[in-house]
Specification:
The protein has about 180 residues and is α+β, with helices and mostly antiparallel strands. The chain contains 4 helices and 7 strands. A 7-stranded antiparallel sheet has the order 1-7-6-5-4-3-2, with helices on both faces. Helix 2 crosses helix 4.
Length: about 180
């Protein structure tokens, strides 16, 4: 289930600020997804933070691997091999975690090949129990502006599929 709640808008603003973009323009692609899980934020975080399992629930990820000491802490590094679709193909990104607040959020930013990006995962406790999972990324650069018509729908679908699969996977963790 997607959501247009204020947290999503805050997440987008966080990422825009993180890459120094005042507001989205023609060369900006914003990708957001949310899903709710009955599991606690801690249970969802425990599943999400197992980097080796990302390819089992994220359609974007072909492979993931820690390149330094494992674990989501600020400064940790990992590689992610992503299936981005035509015309981007497959790419391996080297990521440095900027923010890691267990059971709350994690973020990293990049600047490669003329594209700046910021990725943010959030795990917010719901008033009635459970967790709202947020998956947000903002990309900015001329290449993104030119390829956005070919990539945006696929990436939005894949981000949503990842959030929903994580939410479903977390259900047994609550029992």
């Amino acid at each position: 289930m997607t959501s247009q709640d204020p947290a999503t808008h805050q997440d987008v603003q966080f990422c825009l600020d993180g890459i120094g973009v005042a507001r989205p323009g023609w060369r900006t692609l914003v990708v957001t997804a949310t899903a709710d899980s009955p599991a606690t934020p801690q249970d969802v975080w425990t599943l999400w933070s197992n980097l080796a399992d990302w390819p089992s629930w994220s359609p974007l990820h072909q492979a993931t691997e820690w390149t330094g000491p494992p674990g989501f802490i600020a400064g940790a590094t990992f590689d992610q091999t992503l299936s981005l679709g035509f015309p981007a193909g497959t790419a391996t990104d080297h990521v440095t975690v900027a923010i890691a607040e267990p059971a709350r959020r994690a973020s990293w930013s990049g600047d490669a090949n003329g594209v700046r990006s910021c990725h943010l995962w959030t795990f917010a406790a719901l008033a009635n129990g459970g967790t709202r999972i947020g998956n947000t990324e903002v990309f900015d650069g001329t290449v993104i502006g030119l390829t956005k018509p070919m990539l945006a729908a696929r990436w939005r679908r894949q981000f949503q599929q990842a959030a929903e699969a994580l939410a479903q996977l977390a259900v047994p963790a609550r029992r």
